[in-house]
Amino acid sequence: MNKLYLWGIIFAAVMLLLTYLSVGGSEGGLNDDIVNMLAVAGAVALVIITVFVVIKYVRQMQTDTADGELVDHSWDGIGEYKNSVPMGWAIMFLGTMIWGMWYFTIGYPVNAYSQIGEYNEDTKAHNEKFEAKYADITGERLVDMGESVFLAECKVCHGLQADGIDGKAANLNVRLEEKVVKHAIINGANNHLLGTEMPMPDRNGLFNANTNEMITDAEIDLVSKYVANGMTGAGADVFEGVCASCHGADGKGMEYVAPNIAEFTPELVVNVLNHGKKGAIGAMPKFDKLNDKQKEAVGAYITSISSK
Amino acid sequence: MFHWLEKHPFFFAVGVFVTIAFAGLIEILPNFAQASRPVIGTAPYSTLELAGRHVYIKNSCNACHSQLVRPFKSETDRYGHYSLSGEYAYDRPFLWGSKRTGPDLMRVGNYRTTDWHENHMKDPASVVPGSIMPAYKWMFTNNADVDTAYAEQLTVANAFSVPYNEPVPMKDGSTKIVKMGKNLAEARALALAEAKEIVADMKDQDVKDAVARGEIPEIVAIIAYMNSLK
């Protein structure tokens, strides 16, 4: 047998032995794990193929002789045979060029990954799913959604119980607190509660039709309590004389004129979310990042807790 | 020249490096310059806001709060639009942070208000039950360092041409002019005027009194800074 083959077999055997020792000696070994076994099988195949391919080329170098027609030109003493281009190589070469042109003009520009692109696709898919899933949501489920949005976005100011955390924000369990009403009467208000610019005058513009005079301090106290108590108690006559012409006799407001001050409505809440507001307690920023359905849901939730 | 390069492999290698580096630069630099330009709606910090930013850095707020909204739906739902590099054009240094023990503050000015910050800095757990953020009571008594803020304004205006006293385009098509005092006295007056607007929405009587006396407690400066983060 050729000495080269002998050395090849010895070398392959040593490599296989080392592989076996290294795998068998490591913790767990093959461990009946299909992935481990595949890896070892791959290693064995690699060793055998490598050894015999190397042997083939070493033998070729030992035995081959050069023949063929030399080209006329000599490059500093180095000649070159006239060989035709191998077909397989030529096909690969042309194929690579065509692929390169495609990749340069279409492949990369159209298919390139972009983080923002992925974000846009995610957002689009999520929004479509949200719309399809919640298009017809009403009643209890809408209130539940409103509660979950409230707990995510609103509770940091209005509190878990929506009680405004000791006056840090509006208490949403009641429509209006006395100091809020009083502040609005004395200073006027323009909080886009109807969705449009629609200012309420300050006390210098509030005329009591019953007494034919401007509203007085005593009347302000009285009517503030009346509104804060849910339109009950003393002060009904002041309300009728001063406020009812815009807010309606029952305080439920008039379209395009004045908002409902007797109870929360979903529309009112949505307008506050869209425009924010500023009043006796402080400023509330707008929350227009919520989508329409979420705003509607928050409106339904606040309406439901305040009417309990 | 090429013949010479063929005979001098070292200089040939240098030539290859320069050629490839040049190709890299002309691809990277124009994009980089474009992206680091301030986006529309990004204005320089006023004196008081910068003083607040110094308070923010001094108290290591950036150790728990990031200022970088990543482009994921879950983040943009919570914090608003994802951050753009141009929005940091006037941040020296940027305060991206590397860990969110607390929430991101990149756009906190959009959804929190002056009086909320006041309550929160005094006693975080009173507005956020279970919050592990410590109270920062000393901010209500320590005074903000307006002089250093003005020095920084002067430096960045001269060294980086930050557009103070010049109209800056805003998102709604209007322009905004961020003023910088001509001298220290003017800068202090501007900061105090701004502080007065902030304390009008605050409740702490000691802070109100301090501003009426002409002092600027740190809490006023940091609220001005928080409100500017949009």
Describe the structure in your own words.
The complex is a heterodimer of chains A (308) and B (230). With 308 residues, chain A is mainly α. Chain A contains eleven helices and four strands; from the N terminus they run αααααααββαααββα. In chain A, the strands form two sheets. A two-stranded antiparallel ribbon of chain A has the order 1-2. A two-stranded antiparallel ribbon of chain A has the order 3-4. In chain A, a hairpin with a 4-residue loop joins strand 1 (207-208) and strand 2 (213-214). In chain A, helix 1 (3-25) runs antiparallel to helix 2 and helix 10 packs across helix 11. Chain A starts with a helix and ends with a helix. The model of chain A has no long low-confidence stretch (mean pLDDT 87). Chain B has two domains: 2-35; 47-228, Orthogonal Bundle (Cytochrome Bc1 Complex, Chain D, domain 2). Chain B has helices at 2-7, 9-35, 47-58, 73-79, 114-122, 124-127, 146-159, 184-199, 205-213, 218-228; strands at 167-169, 175-177. The mean pLDDT of chain B is 93. The chains are: A mainly alpha (308), B mainly alpha (230). At the A-B interface, helix 4, helix 5 and strand 4 of A face helix 4 and helix 5 of B.
Number of domains of chain B: 2
Gyration radius of chain A, rounded:
42 Å
Tell me, briefly, the overall form of chain A.
elongated
Task: Spell out the helices and strands of chain A N to C.
Answer: HHHHHHHEEHHHEEH
Per DSSP, what share of the residues of chain A sits in E-state strands of 2 or more residues? under 5%
Unreliable spans of chain A? none
Order of helices and strands of chain B: HHHHHHHEEHHH
Query: Quaternary state, please?
Result: heterodimer
Provide the residue-averaged pLDDT of chain A: 87
- Give the spatial strand order of the biggest sheet of chain A: 1-2
